[in-house]
Design brief:
- By secondary structure, the chain is an alpha+beta fold.
- The protein has two domains: 109 residues, no CATH class; 162 residues, no CATH class.
- Helix 3 runs parallel beside helix 5 and helix 6 runs antiparallel to helix 8.
Length: 291
């Protein structure tokens, strides 16, 4: 089994099983990302390759995902295989047993990805709605009025040998030539002490203590990311390459808005001013699960 065939097999089989595909038209960038994933480039990009959308003047040294050699592969497989649907256990076990060292590591990295569900998303909202509202209020007060800022804190990953990092995206209220919102900055997996991250948060009037305060608010709400705006979006949890989030509108949704944000795939209208959201990755689950 060649490396590329193995990548395609694992990507579709693990992340695509039982997934309801989104039929909406994909953007060109999404198509390119999917193509990249299917040949293994997404998870195994060459060191130094810039996968972000904005050229940087300063070199950013990031942790390169690599399998932790201190982990016993067979022991880890016996743990992660329990998360797989029973109908697929035999296939994955065969692929693991017949794979070479690199193929086994890749399979373990995929199977070790975080998993969540709509039920967990709803239960967290029931438990932490007030904490989420506090997060939204205090975060909105930290962001300059002219900006929309997305931030996500990525935890340390023992399997992938990566440390804590931050995803940061900054939009201004300026319109670009196409009439859309202008993107000022975007970078993923920024080390917490990186010069680029500190420079960008300084431009926002933030410092390390601000990051710490935001992280505490997110932790208290049992969430991982937030973006301010007319609609505040709070990320609940990553699941494979997808993500479960909450959308909080400023006012209760009208009947028309309830219909718009209740397609059962990307959105589920919850109540009042709250919508549940699921964003699919390049491959794998693209919609909310039916059950």
């Amino acid at each position: 089994m060649t490396k590329h065939i193995f990548y395609i097999f694992i990507s579709f089989l693990i992340l695509g099983c039982s997934a309801q595909k989104n039929t909406q038209r994909k953007t060109d960038s999404e198509k390119e990302l999917e193509k990249s994933v299917l040949v293994g480039d997404f998870l195994f990009a060459e060191t130094g390759e810039n996968l972000d959308s904005i050229p940087k003047k300063k070199k950013i040294i990031k942790d390169e995902p690599k399998f932790n050699q201190n982990i016993n592969k067979d022991s880890l497989f016996n743990v992660v295989i329990k998360k797989v649907h029973p109908a697929k256990v035999k296939e994955f076990t065969k692929a693991y047993n017949e794979g070479n060292n690199q193929e086994k590591e890749f399979l373990l990295m995929i199977l070790s990805m975080n998993k969540s569900s709509k039920i967990e998303q709803i239960n967290n909202l029931k438990t932490n709605e007030n904490n989420i509202k506090t997060l939204i209020k205090e975060y909105s007060e930290l962001v300059p009025d002219s900006l929309s800022v997305f931030i996500e804190f990525n935890p340390k990953d023992i399997v992938l040998s990566t440390n804590e990092s931050v995803d940061l995206r900054i939009h201004s209220n300026r319109k670009n030539k196409n009439g859309g919102i202008e993107l000022d900055f975007q970078e993923w997996n920024l080390p917490l002490n990186s010069e680029v991250l500190l420079e960008q948060i300084n431009n926002l009037g933030w410092n390390k203590n601000t990051l710490s305060d935001i992280k505490k608010l997110l932790d208290k709400a049992k969430c991982c990311s937030i973006e301010n705006g007319e609609i505040s979006t709070v990320g609940f949890a990553r699941s494979g390459m997808g993500k479960y989030s909450y959308k909080f509108f400023k006012n209760d949704l009208t009947k028309e808005e309830q219909s718009e944000f209740n397609d059962g795939c990307l959105y589920i209208y919850y109540e009042r001013n709250i919508v549940l959201e699921f964003g699919g990755g390049a491959v794998g689950q693209q919609c909310f699960e039916k059950q």
